[in-house]
Structure to design on (151 residues):
């Protein structure tokens, strides 16, 4: 498995733990430190994904809510929510991952870790955002209210 794919998988596992348990980033890193050390080739990117997506989750959640209004965030499965956070952060803030790669990787994570319909949901939300990639990036980078993005 390629290092970046392993990093995304590791980031998802860490964020799932934090989201489910309410543990802090630091506390979760302590719990998974041994595993992270074994994944040295993926470690740096995984930690960057977690810190970035978790640190921007309030903004990311607004984007998700705006484009998945039929699914309140509190009712959305933890896996789906965190896959979306990672993907949107990757193309919207990080900016070094092409949009199509972020979407494809998110769909693969959803197929592997989500429910039978997770990959369709993730693909649908990210597909709706694809046409607004520049708007999403500008909003996230400048902290403009998500209402500025037309649905």
């Amino acid at each position: 498995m390629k290092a970046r794919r392993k990093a995304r998988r590791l980031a998802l596992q860490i964020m799932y733990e934090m989201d489910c348990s309410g543990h802090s980033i630091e506390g979760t890193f302590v719990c998974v430190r041994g595993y992270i050390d074994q994944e040295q080739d993926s470690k740096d990117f995984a930690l960057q994904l977690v810190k970035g997506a978790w640190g921007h989750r309030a903004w990311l959640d607004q984007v998700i809510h705006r484009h998945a209004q039929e699914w309140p965030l509190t009712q959305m499965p933890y896996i789906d929510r965190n896959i979306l956070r990672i993907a949107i952060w990757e193309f919207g803030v990080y900016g070094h991952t092409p949009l199509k790669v972020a979407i494809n990787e998110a769909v693969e994570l959803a197929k592997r870790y989500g429910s039978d319909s997770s990959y369709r949901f993730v693909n649908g939300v990210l597909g709706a955002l694809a046409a607004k990639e520049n708007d999403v990036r500008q909003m996230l980078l400048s902290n403009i209210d998500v209402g500025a993005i037309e649905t």
Summary: Confidence is low (pLDDT under 50) at residues 144-151. The helical segments are 3-21, 25-38, 40-55, 57-67, 78-94, 99-113, 118-130, 133-142. DSSP finds eight helices and no strands in the chain. Residues 3-148 form a domain with the N-utilizing Substance Protein B Homolog; Chain A fold (CATH 1.10.940.10).
